[in-house]
Design brief:
Blueprint lengths: L2 E5 L12 H7 L4 E3 L8 H11 L2 E6 L19 H18 L3 E3 L11 H20 L4 E4 L15 H11 L4 E6 H7 L3 H8 L5 E6 L15 H15 L4 E4 L11 H4 L6
Parallel strand pairs: 1-2, 1-8, 2-3, 3-4, 4-5, 5-6, 6-7, 7-8
Length: 266
């Protein structure tokens, strides 16, 4: 069965953020992920990981002005210096947290800018980031995100993400395969796992029920079957990654909501 990592941005919201580490460990999680670490000192987060025997498996590089609606800088011409500075900050946190993967959000496609210019900027930034991260032994991940959750997001499809990582050719540039986003945009999820996982270019999976983004036993995807597919293909190709639980508990932020909804987990 895949190794599951608790997404602390979405799960255990009845607790203050730093207390979510202990809550996840109490429920048997051994890995955690979340959107951003930058509101906290890296040493404070590292202490929480150590105290609870947890592994940090993923977080995002700075996305620009999140509160103002920005969702990444990588495709934005003219923001390259800001992108690089933010990525350097991410690598500092990755070092302190012993985190092997950093997700780079593509960003929103600006109105009036030709897609070719955005594509060129995106690929140049990713090539630079992959080269920089390789010196630290880190992977850089890109994620196709559905345009319903983030309208205007530059990268939406698995085939496009895999074309980009193959074109750039850096061994540590990989795809973050979110089954929820894939189902909404493309479907045929099981066959895409079979197609892409053996390439060595899938760095991480994420899950949530479709369409409401609740627990994975709610909605139209058959997650037990998909976990079996991941296990089968991973065993054949040697993949040893994580599956991030990036969903919103159906019971919301009330006490015990996340724990009560873990019946889906084998």
């Amino acid at each position: 069965m895949p190794r599951f990592a608790a997404n602390l941005t979405m799960l255990y919201n009845e607790h203050a953020f730093l207390d979510r580490f202990g809550a996840a460990a109490a429920d048997g999680f051994q890995g955690v992920e979340y959107l951003f670490p930058y509101a906290f000192a890296a040493g404070e987060l590292a202490a929480r990981l150590a105290d609870h025997g947890l592994q940090q498996v993923l977080f995002n590089a700075p996305p620009g002005d999140w509160e103002a609606g920005e969702r990444g800088l990588a495709c934005l011409p003219g923001r390259e210096a800001e992108f690089r500075a933010g990525f350097e900050q991410a690598l500092e946190y990755a070092q302190a947290l012993d985190c092997p993967r950093v997700h780079v959000m593509a960003g929103l496609a600006p109105a009036g800018v030709e897609r070719a210019a955005l594509q060129a900027t995106y690929e140049a930034n990713l090539a630079w980031a992959a080269g920089r991260a390789a010196r630290d032994g880190r992977d850089v991940l890109i994620e196709p995100i559905n345009p319903r959750d983030i309208p205007g997001f530059f990268l939406n499809r698995q085939d496009e993400a895999h074309r980009i990582v193959q074109a750039i050719g850096a061994a540590n540039l990989k795809v973050q395969f979110d089954l929820y986003h894939c189902q909404i945009v493309e479907g045929d999820v099981a066959m895409k796992i079979r197609q892409y996982l053996p390439t060595g270019r899938v760095g991480h999976f994420q899950i949530a029920g479709v369409p409401m983004r609740h627990e994975p036993d709610l909605g139209e995807l058959n997650h037990p079957y998909l976990f079996e597919v991941i296990d089968e293909v991973a065993a054949a190709c040697g993949w040893q990654g994580w599956v991030g639980c990036e969903y919103r508990p159906r019971l919301g932020p009330q006490p015990g909501a996340t724990t009560a909804g873990l019946g889906w987990r084998p």
